TrEMBL record:
PROSITE patterns: ADH_SHORT. This is Short-chain dehydrogenase/reductase SDR. Pfam families: adh_short. Belongs to the short-chain dehydrogenases/reductases (SDR) family. It comes from Aequoribacter fuscus. InterPro entries: NAD(P)-bd_dom_sf, Sc_DH/Rdtase_CS, SDR_fam. PANTHER family: 17-BETA-HYDROXYSTEROID DEHYDROGENASE 14-RELATED, SHORT-CHAIN DEHYDROGENASE/REDUCTASE. The keyword Protein transport does not apply. The keyword Oxidoreductase applies. Keywords: Oxidoreductase.
Length: 255
């Protein structure tokens, strides 16, 4: 296993849900964590609880990603970058009055989930590549992205979200091949339905709960952020794990 004691790490979206759970497990493994998130209140609270630091970061901005990387490197060699910041903005291709979907809304989701992920991972990788190798095998660090089962099981109204997560899946292999040369492993975890604040309230939350019936677990239930964090930690600490897309959905299959 990769030893994270004395290292630093970045978790985008670390203020909530899956990212928060991953940040807690990274800290427990001895890494100093930068919570890089837009949510200042929740992010600062989590960072204080785990002995890390909060950096207000919009993943779509290069200067914010640089600030997160800088804060991490100041605490120790950067060994892990978890890209959990993400969101959805559901909407049908044409609405009830047959008007087309707003292009700005579509672009917003792609910008945060796909381009934001590439922005942070490329800047984290640049810092990792400049560091001394950590293990006898010459590895320098690990990157873990969050995709979604929506990359494979598209639901009505989720075109932008599915496209963004399909993009994250699609870029995993080329980036892993690219960064292998400098000892950085890249993996993606694709969650099913996880009990986090991402679904908010209202119509979207109702849609989410309706899918619970597809659970094949007994008793039927949603996944927990902590259970996703186990897989994220495996991607980081298992030196043979590379270029994987791990679907972690409790066996759920949406119709
Ligand atoms: P969450 O809403 O609990 O947390 C997401 C965090 O990302 C929030 O703290 C939010 O402030 C932050 N964020 C949003 N936009 C940002 C931006 N531009 N810059 C920085 N931070 C930003 O969500 P979650 O359920 O923990 O989801 C984590 C990841 O897993 C997301 O990428 C999501 O798409 C993916 N995912 C979640 C589920 C699920 O069922 N919860 C399923 C599949 C995939």
């Amino acid at each position: 296993r990769v030893n994270l004691e004395g290292s630093s790490s970045i978790v985008t979206g670390g203020a909530s849900g899956i990212g928060e759970a991953a940040a807690r497990q990274l800290a427990a493994a001895g890494s100093k964590v930068v919570i890089a998130d837009l949510n200042e209140e929740k992010g600062a609270k989590v960072a204080a609880e785990i002995g890390g630091v909060f950096v207000k970061c919009d993943v779509t901005k290069t200067e914010d990603a640089d600030a997160a990387v800088e804060a991490a490197v100041a605490m120790g060699p950067l060994r892990a970058c978890v890209n959990s910041a993400g969101l959805g903005a559901p909407g049908r291709t044409i609405d009830r009055d047959n008007n087309p979907h707003d292009l700005g809304r579509f672009a917003f989701v792609i910008n945060v989930n796909l381009i934001g992920t590439f922005n942070v991972l490329s800047r984290a990788a640049a810092a990792m590549a400049k560091q001394e190798p950590m293990d006898a095998d010459g590895s320098r660090g690990a990157i873990v992205n969050l995709a979604s089962c929506a990359a494979f099981d598209g639901q009505i109204g989720q075109a932008a979200y599915s496209a963004s997560k399909g993009g994250v899946v699609g870029m995993t292999l080329p980036i892993a091949r690219d960064l292998s040369a400098v000892g950085i492993r890249v993996n993606t975890v694709a969650p099913g339905l996880i009990d986090t604040p991402i679904y908010g309230e209202g119509e979207h939350a109702e849609q989410f709960k309706a899918h619970l019936g597809q659970s094949v677990l007994f008793p039927k239930r949603l996944g927990q952020g902590e259970e996703l964090a186990f897989a994220i930690m495996d991607c980081i600490t298992n030196p043979y794990m590379n270029a994987e897309v791990i679907r972690l959905d409790g066996g759920i299959r949406m119709p």
